[in-house]
Write a structure and sequence with these properties.
CATH superfamily: P-loop containing nucleotide triphosphate hydrolases
CATH topology: Rossmann fold
Function: Displays low GTPase activity and exists predominantly in the GTP-bound form.
Mean pLDDT: 84
Oligomer: single chain
Order of helices and strands: HEEHEHEHEHE
Protein name: GTP-binding protein Di-Ras2-like protein
Strand order of the largest sheet: 1-2-6-3-4-5
Number of domains: 1
Distance between the termini: 5 Å
Family: Belongs to the small GTPase superfamily. Di-Ras family.
Low-confidence stretches: 168-178
InterPro entries: P-loop_NTPase, Small_GTP-bd, Small_GTPase, Small_GTPase_Ras-type
Keywords: Cell membrane, GTP-binding, Lipoprotein, Membrane, Methylation, Nucleotide-binding, Prenylation
Largest sheet: 6 strands, mixed
Strand content: 15-25%
CATH class: Alpha Beta
Radius of gyration: 16 Å
Number of helices: 5
CATH architecture: 3-Layer(aba) Sandwich
Length: about 180
């Protein structure tokens, strides 16, 4: 998503349980968070990407390495929603068919009163892109855990589906890194 939509705030709320009022631009940061999923423990590797257009190579690399994507806009900025179109197209271009790639559209800053994007508009875009949708507030810790949990659940369903399609026997493994999430 665009600069200032709260990508880092969502990650820091999820990973550290903290929220900072001050804005500090991100180039790229990586975090790991242990989370439970379907009665097992998974480690989610989260890449918090820049909202700036100054680093297109870094953005392409994050997309190529990512297994799932949170596409974040601010409900207080229509422009931030419009800017996601180019990021979504880039993900499509790099990943190909997105029907098997977990994508969650996230409308952040739900707690703010100066709303420019209605919930129905976010839902409509998610329907168009055939992805899931949630509104969040990093400040109030609203739907933050749920957003990352939903993305992980989508990745787990995709992985199980790929295993079933490949007729590979399911084997028990120790908890390990299950997927990478890119926060765009």
């Amino acid at each position: 998503g665009a600069s200032g939509v709260g990508k880092s705030s969502l990650v820091l709320r999820f990973v550290r349980g903290t929220f900072k009022e001050t804005y500090v631009p991100t180039v790229e940061d990586t975090y790991r968070q242990v989370i439970s999923c379907d009665r097992s423990i998974c480690t989610l590797q989260i890449t918090d990407t820049t909202g700036s257009h100054q680093f297109p190579a870094m953005q392409r690399l994050a997309i190529s390495r990512g297994h799932g994507f949170l596409l974040v806009y601010s409900v207080t900025s229509r422009q931030s929603l419009q800017e996601l179109e180019a990021i979504y197209e880039q993900i499509c271009h790099i990943k190909g068919d997105l029907t098997s790639v977990p994508v969650l559209l996230v409308g952040n800053k739900r707690d703010e009163s100066q709303r420019q994007v209605d919930t129905s508009e976010g839902q409509a875009l998610a329907t168009k892109w055939e992805c899931s949708f949630l509104e969040t507030s990093a400040k109030l810790n609203y739907n933050v855990q749920e957003a990352f949990q939903e993305l992980l659940n989508m990745e787990r369903r995709r992985t199980v589906s790929l295993q079933l399609e490949g007729n590979r026997p399911k084997r028990r493994t120790e908890p390990r890194l299950k997927g990478k999430c890119s926060l765009m």
